Amino acid sequence: MAKVSIPFSVETYSERRKTLMSKIGKGKILLLGNQDSSINFKDNVYHFRQDSTFLYYIGINLMDLNAILDCDTGEVSLFGDDASIDLIVWMGNQPKLSELAEKVGIKTLHPASKIREMLGGDVKYLPPYRSRHEIALKSLLDISQVEPSLDLIHAVIAQRNIKTEEEIQLLDQACSLTAKMHEYVLRNAKPGMMEYQLVGLASAFAWNSNAQWSFPPILTKNGQTLHNHYHGHQINEGDMVLFDGGIELESGYCGDMTRSFPVGAKFTEKQSNLYRIVYKSYQTALEHTKPERYYKDVHLAVAKTMVEGLKEIGLMKGDPDEAVAAGAHALFFPHGLGHMLGLDVHDMENLGEVHVGYDNTIEKSMQFGLRSLRLGRKLKEGFVITIEPGIYLIPELIDKFKSEGQHLNFVDYKALEDYRTVGGIRIEDDYIITSDGHRRLGEALANDLDSIESMRAEAIG
Amino acid sequence: MAKVSIPFSVETYSERRKTLMSKIGKGKILLLGNQDSSINFKDNVYHFRQDSTFLYYIGINLMDLNAILDCDTGEVSLFGDDASIDLIVWMGNQPKLSELAEKVGIKTLHPASKIREMLGGDVKYLPPYRSRHEIALKSLLDISQVEPSLDLIHAVIAQRNIKTEEEIQLLDQACSLTAKMHEYVLRNAKPGMMEYQLVGLASAFAWNSNAQWSFPPILTKNGQTLHNHYHGHQINEGDMVLFDGGIELESGYCGDMTRSFPVGAKFTEKQSNLYRIVYKSYQTALEHTKPERYYKDVHLAVAKTMVEGLKEIGLMKGDPDEAVAAGAHALFFPHGLGHMLGLDVHDMENLGEVHVGYDNTIEKSMQFGLRSLRLGRKLKEGFVITIEPGIYLIPELIDKFKSEGQHLNFVDYKALEDYRTVGGIRIEDDYIITSDGHRRLGEALANDLDSIESMRAEAIG
């Protein structure tokens, strides 16, 4: 029989829902669970992923469920159908919904079809990110335009942004497995392999741990292509590999890490030069990562460290503070320093990145580079974030900036020619903000240059 | 740079489209390509799978494309947008649509947004299987109800049901890789492993071959649960494993095979008894699989072999022909003997199983067992099909049939008690119907009891 495990106690789920309902105050909250997603015909489906907000408040990792939280009465209703005998013949015995509902403290269980009649009046819902939910909302609520509730969005984010002790335990597990997956790839990649074979190592590791990936991995010798999901190249001595991947537990909690390593036993000189700057930037980030610091300021401090390092090797010039203010560093570091992590690898990105990572004290900058910073707000105890500085040589971007005459005072385009094909390097780990600073989640995997090279030397033998 | 390979020639795609347009005669045919599918937020997406009919007529394995075939003018228009510089910075250089269009013989390329204004008049389209397509059809055509064209469905099926030599080459490749994946799992499964670790072997094999699965594998010690995607059990001496899985090439062509094997070096006596009956049934299927035979009759001949075998070991009784006519065999063999295979593992199931597997000479039976037979029509040269007999002891089904007093003349429910927990066994391979019979696709993997046991003995060492 398929097992559905519920990670937390009745009290946890009941408290979470009570907090949400009391914050919203009146009307009904509609929480839509996910359905199967078809690949190339209805019954050929992708791996099922429950909606994260549904997991957070309802806790049941099963498809075809919906819930209503009635803020006026405090009643919570779950809508779904038990498996028929026909389904049991094909799919095996299924857990009873009534038993699952009991485990998450829900007393009212209705057939799936009953939800329509229970949806009168003021109904608040979150933005749909799957077309099926868009259709369901329009049909259930008899509306032509979907209008998610901003109050509900903010209330959910306020709760989910602060991770509790029991959530942190699961995040620690996810991050430990993530570190082990990275180590497995780092120690088993060999010159001459294809990138997709390295993905195979990562996939075998995840399945072997009874886990999924939290996102399709970036695993490439062209790390300068930030969202590179192509895996068709051979890796050879002299190349670097950038692997950005994470493990997702059955409970939905995610890890997200990046390591960059040489295919041979050692980085080349230019690769080393850049690696050391990224590593130093990572250390800068750690120095600044603590409660009450705006993460945007941490990002900018990191950018300054990068400019100083790039000046030392002759790729940048001028005053570092001025270069950062002008956004010149973003030629090399066009993405943000990090993002929230939790039940989603970009936690709650479906609710709106700007609502999660910014608040009424800070607006998102539209400057190139900063506009890709997902998290800018003041750090608080309980936030779980990624720290992921990187330096990239993106030929298309270099050509664009150069042809537009951008940052001529800060970038030495001539010296840059020598580095044009070095690629991309990123170091990424996951941290919880504590009362007086931060703590790295999970069992650590080394990220300094010497440790990486020594793991690679052992791998190659 | 990400590469998009086009498997066939300009002529192949042009001919396919010409044939379709001439069959439809007038009006426009709208072919929707697939988009990315979101997992838990918009930008976290499942592995992209192009629509198979789009692959068949247009050949470009890239998202966010649509096409119109104008039957009145013969013009074929492709709608899509090239990557912007912003996208290239993040995603890397992308292939130019104009170059891809040229490779598939399409001269008219428009921006994606232009499709709306080109869609007046009589527009035919296929049934949507993704919600996003349902929304797109309603919006593009300004309709409230989706009404797919039955003429178009039949015309597409008539073409895609008959595989050409160049398609068969790719199917041979997919089936060879599928056989190798099965052998890899068969030779590396060890007592004490968890089912999910075996899935990890299958996943590593697929990635290592730069391929995907054609469907999420069934890999379980509870093979009696027909659509079992739960992988949480430990496998031990005395258990059997049923692995139903297939490889899908980048071109979209699929393999689909099943092997059942003992976790130890040998099947138990009861497992052996059932395995031999399934193997004999498979041989019966081969004897009957040739052009002009109704596949329903092959299915029924197989059912009779099963009843005869089950009589020999005392689980069934009475006249085999009468037992099959009554559907008594379906207690043990509740699914169909096979289905079409091609660009989809259940080829064209999105167009309607009954249109693919039946025609105006034969109607689908609603008898339990036969109603799950996806393919009943007369076999023709060029059909690619699966042959997959199986015997299952499904406790829930046995209890149901017994309590309803079903087939008391044919089933010995008392003797059955001894076999109640033996599980499920299936043997499945893929065949092309030739002018005088059939040919197994791909390099074969043995499926007789002795070969399976000897592979397992070597695996355990």
What does the radius of gyration of chain A come to?
24 Å
CATH-level-4 superfamily name of the largest domain in chain A: Creatinase/methionine aminopeptidase superfamily
Classify the helix fraction of chain A into a percent range: 25-40%
Structural class of chain A: alpha+beta
- Which chains share the greatest interface? A-B, 65 and 65 residues
Strand content of chain A: 5-15%
Oligomeric state of shown chains = homodimer
CATH fold type of the largest domain in chain A? Creatine Amidinohydrolase
| Total beta strand runs of chain A | 17
Mean pLDDT of chain A: 96
If strands are numbered along the chain, what order do they take across the biggest sheet of chain A? 6-5-4-1-7
Span between termini of chain A:
45 Å
Shape of chain A: globular
Low-confidence blocks of residues of chain A:
none
How many domains of chain A? The number is 2
The profile of the biggest β sheet of chain A is: 5 strands, mixed
Molecular structure report:
2 copies of one chain form a homodimer. Chain A has 2 domains: 10-161, Creatine Amidinohydrolase, Chain A, domain 1 (3-Layer(aba) Sandwich); 165-460, Creatine Amidinohydrolase (Alpha-Beta Complex). In chain A, the strands form 6 sheets. Chain A has a 5-stranded mixed sheet with strand order 6-5-4-1-7, covered by helices on one side. In chain A, strands 9-10-12 form a 3-stranded antiparallel sheet. The first copy, chain A, has a 3-stranded antiparallel sheet with strand order 13-16-17. The mean pLDDT of chain A is 96. Chain A contains 15 helices and 17 strands. Chain A is globular and about 70 Å long. In chain A, α1 packs antiparallel against α6 (150-161), α7 crosses α8 and α10 packs across α11. With 461 residues, chain A is an alpha+beta fold. Helix content of chain A is 37%, strand content 13%. At the A-B interface, β2, β3, α3, α5 and α8 of A face β2, β3, α3, α5 and α8 of B.
